[in-house]
Amino acid sequence: ENVVIKGVKAIDLSSKYTLNITKATIKGSTTAIYSTANGTNITVDQSTITGTGDDGIYVEGSLAAITVTNTTVTAGDDGIVNKSTSGTLNVSDSIITSTTATNGAALNIANASGTSTIENSTLTGNKYGVYINSYSMTISLQNNTIKSNNGVRVHDVYTSNNGKNNVTITGGTIDGVTHGVYTNYSNITTSNVTIKTTGNSES
């Protein structure tokens, strides 16, 4: 609590850990928090996370659990990347920003068969607000403000052997230039959400 950690990768986990970060400042010149271990549990609350040259939080492996609350994440590429197969991602009451002028997403969710719940947060990216890139995922977006060239973009990795993603969007605002919400195969359910596009008529 109340610590400042700086480094190329400020926190680099290659083995299974339970990491609790509260009221801290974590700054990486590439990625702030980086984990490749199976089963890692990362909880971040009331903190400032900055990945200047790459990602804010990057997690792969399997069965990882990521919880981010009341936190500001700023990254040169993706704010939070979750590639943990069958893992979980929970974000609430946070501000996630990708600052790159070209690609990048506030959230890059690619955890096959995983579950993600994002609520009451502000997600801003140049190319994507939320980029979903896998299969058999269950994702709930609740009362968020999402703004990007593509607000919510689902790059479906769906085949006869891979299940479809199930995405539920409830409340909040999605503001896109090219697309507000875009998918080919995923199941998307919307309720009481405002979806706007400024670049064309597609939503």
What does this structure look like?
The chain has no helices and 21 strands. It is mainly beta and 203 residues long. The mean pLDDT is 92.
SSE order and pairing:
Blueprint: E1 4-13, E2 18-22, E3 25-35, E4 41-45, E5 48-51, E6 57-59, E7 65-69, E8 72-75, E9 80-82, E10 88-92, E11 95-98, E12 105-109, E13 115-119, E14 122-124, E15 128-132, E16 138-142, E17 145-154, E18 166-170, E19 173-182, E20 187-191, E21 194-197
Parallel strand pairs: 1-3, 2-4, 3-5, 3-6, 4-7, 5-8, 6-9, 7-10, 8-11, 9-12, 10-13, 11-14, 12-15, 13-16, 14-17, 15-17, 16-18, 17-19, 18-20, 19-21
How many strands in all? 21
Computed structural class: mainly beta
Report how far apart the termini are.
Answer: 43 Å
Tally the helices.
Answer: 0
User: What is the gyration radius calculated from CA atoms?
Assistant: 16 Å
Brief overview, please?
The chain has no helices and 21 strands.
Key features of this structure:
single chain; 203 residues; globular; 10-stranded parallel beta barrel; mainly beta; 57% strand
